[in-house]
Amino acid sequence: MSYVPPPRSLRIACPPKINLYLRIVRRRDDGYHELATVFQSVSGGDILYATEADELILTCDAEGVPTDESNLVLKAARLFQERYPEVAMQGAAFHLEKRTPVGAGMGGGSVNGAAALRLLTELWALEPDGEELAQMAAQLGSDVPFFLEGGTALGGGRGEELSPLPTAPLWLTLVRPPVGVNTGWAYRQWIPTEGGSTIEAFTAALASGDPVQVAGALRNDLELGVAAGLPEIEATRKWLQSQGAVGVMMTGSGSVVFGLARDQRHAEEMAAATGAPGTAWACRCLTREEAALVPQRV
Ligand code: C5P
């Protein structure tokens, strides 16, 4: 049965991301890895609802998604309550329609956390400035700050130092093999390598808007190590190549692998083809305006 939000609810669409480029610069003393990455918002994703309530609660239509305090939605609420004593006793009832696969490398949980910050700003009539929101987002996770901006962005540091890039009108086919990946595990599998495309080469290719040029400059330093432990990654890569994808790469820590399509029709054909080694779907790259986390009244 589909979810019927209570009166005066807010709703927000949560488009996920892929990493078109991910270079690991070094392992830092704090255990994180210094990155040069290009985040890209893509169409589709979850819907998060919020309504005023006496307590903080989260429900979800999908099994296997934690709805306790470990979920970034409730963690976001707790951060607001610590920072703003006037809302410390305030509640909110969240409902999550989960569409982005978990353990996919698409920031599905992170965009929920960023969306919760936006929803609660409205619901609890708070006025955090951009810097405060970005700080809270970075506390929630390395790629949460990106989702406050969305679109296309270069990420430095552990992913939280952002500068916007122009968006290329690219279409992709995504495949989620029947296995999820834990982000911490993926980073521990990192195998340092020499060479590879530079960030300058990648941003120049992206600026051309040509999928073939972008394909030639894709990079993900996490893929080699993750694929060494999970044969599904290589199988998915091969399948996308057999469908004529102009470039193929794992996103973030995996396990989703994306294939760059020539155009929308090609992306949809690949997604509809039989024999995919997992769930396949087509999506397109979103601009910052299209990916903005804007709460709507329902
Ligand atoms: O920041 P977040 O909680 O999403 O990161 C999850 C895990 O991924 C971290 O505990 C860390 O092991 C790893 N990570 C990393 N370097 C990054 C981002 C994440 O090593 N830049």
Keywords:
298 residues; alpha+beta; five-stranded mixed sheet; globular; binds cytidine-5'-monophosphate
Describe the structure.
With 298 residues, the protein is of the alpha+beta class. Helix content is 34%, strand content 26%. The protein has 11 helices and 14 strands. The protein has helices at residues 72-83, 108-123, 130-140, 144-149, 183-188, 199-208, 211-217, 223-229, 231-242, 264-272, 288-291, and strands at 10-14, 17-27, 33-41, 46-53, 56-60, 91-97, 152-156, 161-164, 171-176, 219-220, 247-250, 257-260, 279-284, 296-297. The strands form 3 sheets. Strands 5-6-4-1-14 form a 5-stranded mixed beta sheet, covered by helices on one side. Strands 8-7-3-2-10 form a 5-stranded mixed beta sheet. Helix 8 packs across helix 9 (231-242). The chain starts with 9 loop residues before the first strand and ends with a strand. It binds cytidine-5'-monophosphate (C5P). Residues 31-33, 35, 141-142, 158-159, 183-184, 187 line the site of cytidine-5'-monophosphate. Cytidine-5'-monophosphate (C5P) binds next to strand 3 and helix 5.
